[in-house]
Amino acid sequence: MNKLIYAVIVVLVTTTMPVFAQGIGWGIVNAKIHSEFPDVPRMQTSELADILNKANEQKPLLLDVRTKAEFDVSHLAGATRVEPGVDISKLPLPKDKPIITYCSVGYRSAALAKKLRDAGYTHVTNLEGSIFRWANENRPLVHDGQPTDKVHPYNGVWGMLVDKAHRAENAPPAEAVKDER
Asked: Tens digit of pLDDT per residue, the chain (181 long)?
């Protein structure tokens, strides 16, 4: 009987996870981020793309809040990597410059954005959907200064939020950080 229950669970998970991840999954992820970080402003990927494409627009400081393994696969051009859970007192950032935070789905970056705002940084915004949504929309990513369309999937579950065509195969594991997303 236990083998039958296990088999049913495996079938349910493997057949419904892609639907969960691509459809309902984003709704749940965003609802959790919005409820835990209600005071953190959000920016849509299309808004950031517009800002980055305007020649005369002041460019925001892009903070990539992912591990080195994730960042090394790809990131937004010009982004600075910030270790998840960093002590913000050690970050030499201008308090009045626009800052956009992003990670895989937006949770780690929302946590950093909240810390920065609480510390007096006045123009901090979290990128809704973060690099996964950016990649899914076929927006530009770089790896070692060269264009790429691949992104680190973080892990097997969270990586399902990235279109398969954009998931980096055989990516080194992301180092464990408490409450990673």
From this structure: 556 554 444 444 444 444 444 455 899 999 999 999 999 999 999 999 999 999 887 899 999 999 999 999 999 999 999 999 999 998 999 988 999 999 999 999 999 999 999 999 989 999 999 999 999 999 999 999 999 999 999 998 899 999 999 999 888 888 754 444 4
Answer yes or no: is 177 within a domain: no
- Half-sphere exposure for 25 (CA within 13 Å, toward CB): 20
pTM: 0.83
Token digits of residue 98 = 């626009």
Q: Is residue 180 part of a domain?
A: no
**CATH code, domain carrying 63:** 3.40.250.10
DSSP string of 103-119?
-SSSHHHHHHHHHHHHT
Residue 99, SS3 per DSSP: strand
The total number of structural domains in the chain stands at 1
Determine the 3-state secondary structure of 65 from DSSP: coil
In a domain, 174, yes or no: no
